[in-house]
Design goal:
Blueprint: E1 2-3, E2 8-9, H1 10-16, E3 21-23, E4 30-34, E5 37-40, H2 41-53, E6 61-65, H3 71-82, H4 101-104, H5 108-112, E7 129-132, H6 141-145, E8 149-154, H7 157-171, H8 181-190, H9 198-211, E9 216-220, H10 221-226, H11 228-238, H12 245-250, H13 252-259, H14 262-267, H15 269-273, H16 300-314
Parallel strand pairs: 6-7, 6-8, 8-9
Antiparallel strand pairs: 1-2, 3-4, 4-5
The chain binds adenosine-3'-5'-diphosphate.
Adenosine-3'-5'-diphosphate (A3P) binds next to helix 3, helix 7 and helix 14.
Length: 321
């Protein structure tokens, strides 16, 4: 069934010829619109395989994000939170000190099911901690049908865009063939961005979090930055692993936040010089980690244009940026 050479099945190759496509931000590549979601060819293969094969368990915890919304941070927080009995936070050999969180909390479509791989879940302990950039509509049915819990992290679209633009420029190998920031910005406003449209992605999970608060927990990057302790404790409650009074007294909450802070993680040897098991340099996932860095790059016109789009798209949703 699988054509291993490029990791795409015949089915996927056939589908590619029928989907709307646009030049991606790395202009020599294309993005394809599948079920309303803009995906690279490689990612489309991963999404299809995951949709067909992944069997969720009721105890699964799945982190969902738009790319560049702070996934690395929340993966670190979730891993540390969930595993704090198995890996006590104050011990020197904590896995997060020697591995990047992307290697501890794998993406479904980007890591486990990509390139025709058949994942082996036998080494995962319960609850399994997984991640995805898939839209709500594209999630494998078993995730929606099971009691698996979803944690959604959202970030201000202006900062998300700037973070994405830097990331793509950072990881691409060929510097001659990429779109300008203006072109990428126009694409983003039209909804043509990796795993975009940004607003559809956010709004679908936002609605689900309101309709099913025990199933989907909605977090904002800026809110965690502003009140980290409050949101970590809310997250622990949602995941039914509340901090005990004893843990609070011993400073476990503060220590998890310190351990997962941008300053701590970005200065670890593994994140300064190490690579992910998939080959990307870990340091690409740590740039500034600030709120409002878009102001350094946006012109007045860009800001007004995106404000207008945001207003239109999020009207009536109670979400504001
Ligand atoms: P910037 O490019 O604005 O600095 P993702 O993890 O989804 O790829 O998102 C990457 C963004 O999250 C980058 O934003 C990165 O610097 C920031 N980030 C990474 N680790 C972080 C942390 N521990 N705390 C806050 N932000 C973090």
């Amino acid at each position: 069934k699988y054509l291993r050479q490029d990791g795409l099945t015949d089915e996927c190759k056939k589908l590619l010829t029928t989907l709307p496509k646009e030049r991606s931000w790395i202009a020599s590549h294309y993005m394809y619109n599948y079920q309303g979601l803009w995906l690279s060819q490689r990612l489309l293969g991963g999404v299809l395989a995951c949709q067909q094969q992944f069997q969720a368990q009721g105890s699964d915890i799945i982190l969902v994000t738009n790319p560049k919304s702070g996934t690395t941070w929340l993966k670190s927080l979730l891993f540390t939170l969930i595993n704090r009995k198995k890996y006590p936070i104050f011990e020197q050999d904590h896995p997060l000190l020697v591995k990047n969180s992307h290697d501890l909390v794998p993406f479904l479509e980007l890591k486990l099911y990509v390139d025709g791989q058949v994942p082996d879940f036998s080494s995962f302990t319960s609850p399994r901690l997984l991640a995805t950039h898939m839209s709500f509509a594209s999630l494998p049915k078993s995730i929606q049908d099971s009691r698996a819990k979803l944690v959604y992290l959202c970030r201000n679209p202006k900062d998300t865009f700037i973070s994405m633009w830097h990331f793509i420029n950072n990881i691409k190998l060929d510097h001659t063939d990429s779109k300008s920031i203006e072109e990428c910005f126009d694409d983003f406003c039209k909804g043509v961005s990796p795993c975009g449209p940004f607003w559809d992605h956010v709004l679908d999970y936002w609605k689900e979090s309101i309709e099913k608060p025990n199933k989907v927990f909605f977090l904002m990057y800026e809110e965690i930055k502003a009140q980290p302790k409050l949101h970590l404790k809310r997250l622990a409650e949602f995941l039914e692993c509340q901090f005990s009074i004893e843990e609070e007294k011993c400073g476990v909450v503060d220590e998890i936040l310190r351990m997962c802070s941008f300053d701590n993680l970005s200065n670890l040897e593994v994140n300064r010089n190490g690579k992910l098991s998939s080959g990307e340099e870990n340091k690409a996932y740590f740039r500034k980690g600030e709120v409002g860095d878009w102001k350094t790059y946006f012109t007045k016109e860009m800001s007004e244009k995106l404000d207008h789009t945001i207003e239109q798209k999020f009207q009536g949703s109670e979400l504001s940026f």
